[in-house]
Design goal:
heterodimer; A: Uridine Diphospho-n-acetylenolpyruvylglucosamine Reductase, domain 2; Uridine Diphospho-n-acetylenolpyruvylglucosamine Reductase, domain 3; Enolase-like, domain 1; 3 domains; 5-stranded antiparallel sheet; 4-stranded antiparallel sheet; 13 helices; B: Ubiquitin-like (UB roll); DNA polymerase, domain 1; 5-stranded mixed sheet; 8 helices; 5 strands; globular
Chain lengths: ~325, ~210
């Protein structure tokens, strides 16, 4: 825990009323600007004075970014939709109940009342060395404090590390990757749409960012195609406290079955690597197989191939194996 | 109390200042000193003394708290809990962790529970903020949850109490017959370090019963 330093340093706050105004501000101020959504990740950084942007652009007044609407091909969720809106939305509950379930498992009720889906997938890692302001790789330095044998790394990577061993802590992200969601990003007047699995960026691509968003970019919405609507999508999260906590490991598995065999499948885990990880080896091992205990067992075994645990997080290997197994064997909870 | 002090206070009372008024004055004076220490402690003073960037200065805004519109000078980086406590004097809202974890600062914004420590005051302009001070009716009738806490002795130290009560008010607005499990889930974003959870949930049940008129 960082030293309590309550007074946030000076900043210039803009509260635009339209997305165009917000984009103009972000273009004008470039890397000096900070995008402020719900503020739950943001204010910790500011209070600890680890991040000190000159300009903050609050998106709270832009109503159009909060819309959740049904489109010709699925559902489009505005980036500023609150987690509670995602939990309670009738269309999401009907078509993608696993997403509503994952959103409900994130954070605490007060945070879900304010925190947004864009913020949940765009949030920074919780690695305490990094968040405490240590000058690690992710903070522009040339060392990782979490990977040495003596480090406290119980919550860190077992997969995909590249110098940095911090993990992505989002609960909704693995579900969105499993559902083949797309991210709509605007920059000035140009728009680009990228698949969810390319939205999350690992340290081998850029060690100082968690997502494809660069200064000037604004995540506008998340499009979920109807491809997986009504499919069997399993989400489970394991955490230290059941009341609220970040995931130790979570899993999202989408399965389409015909006649008891797996016709199509996507298996995604999070909390184990710097990005949500799609386990393609598991997918290709079980596609076409019958949906049964044996297939589930095999999926679990394949899922842990190539893991590289640190000193204190070896337990995550078995945890991931069992979660992947359950995600195929058991009925989705989604309550 | 020493004889000297008693004589002194009696003498003051004779001069037209009541003993109670004298003590209140003394408390107010020390509170003024301690709150300025709070705001300017560590390098906070240096930060506030920096020459202001354009737009980073205090702005006069209107915040509706407990049904009253109040004009307050608020810098853009100030959190709602700070404004409530140190500008408006509404110290019923507590600051525990100041990190959106403990829930002691819970207030209602448009009827929805928010962590005031993690809400910028500028983002609640034009919205209705309700704090623990705004629950009591004009005739002094307590809110059902306040009454229930008294009857069930819901808390020990009660530092977390305002937050629990405010979040329960939000719960009872949505659901007047919550089960203990519903209440526990709803209140999971509030922590009690005395671990009085059992008594708190009993208070919630009692509050729900009072609300229903049972």
């Amino acid at each position: 825990m960082a030293v309590i330093r309550d007074v946030i340093p000076q900043l210039e706050l803009f509260q635009p009323g339209t997305a165009d105004d917000a984009l103009a501000l972000l273009s004008e101020h470039g890397s000096d600007a900070w995008v402020f959504a719900g503020g739950l990740d943001t204010l910790d950084w500011f209070k600890d004075r680890v991040k000190r942007p000159k300009v903050v652009v609050d998106l709270g007044g832009i109503d159009s970014l909060r819309e959740i609407r049904t489109t010709a091909d699925g559902i489009e969720i505005g980036a500023m939709a609150r987690l509670i809106d995602v939990v309670n939305n009738a269309d999401i509950k009907a078509q993608f109940p696993a997403l509503a379930f994952a959103a409900k498992s994130a954070a605490s009720p007060q945070i879900r009342n304010v925190g947004t889906i864009g913020g949940n997938i765009g949030q920074d890692t919780r690695c305490w060395y990094y968040r405490d302001g240590w000058t690690c790789y992710r903070a522009g330095g040339n060392i990782c404090y979490a990977s040495p044998p003596t480090a406290m790394n119980r919550e860190h990577c077992i997969l995909g590390a590249s110098r940095c061993v911090a993990v992505n802590p989002s609960d909704t992200a693995p579900v969105l990757v499993a559902l083949e969601a797309e991210m709509v990003i605007r920059r000035g007047s140009s728009e680009r749409v990228i698949p969810a699995d390319e939205f999350f960026v690992g340290p081998e691509i850029d060690i100082e960012r968690m997502t494809a968003l660069e200064p000037g970019d604004l995540l506008m919405s998340i499009r979920i195609p109807s491809k997986w609507a009504g499919a069997r999508v399993y989400f489970e999260k394991v955490r230290d406290r059941d009341s609220w906590d970040f995931p130790i490991v979570n899993v999202a598995t989408a399965i389409k079955e015909t006649g008891g065999s797996i016709e199509d499948v996507r298996v995604v885990v999070n909390g184990v690597a710097p990005t949500p990880v799609r386990l393609t080896a598991v997918e290709s091992a079980i596609i076409g197989e019958s949906l049964n205990e044996q297939t589930a067992e095999q999926a679990g075994n394949v899922s842990i191939q190539g893991v590289a645990p640190l000193t204190h997080n070896g337990f995550k290997v078995n945890l991931m194996k069992n979660l992947v197994k359950r995600s195929i064997r058991d009925e989705p909870m989604n309550a | 109390m020493s004889q000297e002090i008693i004589e002194l206070t009696e003498e003051t009372a004779q001069q037209g200042v009541s003993r109670r008024g004298f003590i209140k004055g003394a408390i107010a004076a020390s509170a003024a000193v301690s709150s300025s220490n709070y705001l300017f402690r560590a390098n906070g003073g240096a930060l506030l003394a920096q020459s202001a960037a354009a737009g980073a200065v205090e702005r006069l805004i209107t915040v509706n708290v407990n049904g009253r519109s109040r004009r307050v000078q608020v810098p853009p980086m100030e959190t709602l809990s700070t404004t409530l406590r140190y500008t408006m004097g509404l110290t019923g809202t507590k600051i525990g962790c100041d990190r959106a974890e403990c829930g002691a600062c819970t207030v209602l914004v448009d009827g929805v529970s928010h962590y005031a420590c993690s809400t910028l005051t500028h983002t609640v302009r034009g919205r209705e903020v309700t704090t623990i001070e705004g629950l009591e009716g004009e005739d002094g009738t307590l809110h059902p949850m306040q009454q229930a806490v008294l009857e069930e002795q819901g808390f020990q130290c009660a530092f977390c109490m305002s937050g629990f009560i405010m979040n329960t008010v939000a719960l009872l607005n949505e659901n007047q017959s919550p089960t203990r499990k519903d209440a526990a889930e709803w209140l999971s974003g509030n922590l009690c370090r005395c671990a009085d959870y059992d008594k708190i949930l009993t208070s919630v049940e009692r509050a729900a019963a009072i609300t229903r008129g049972a």
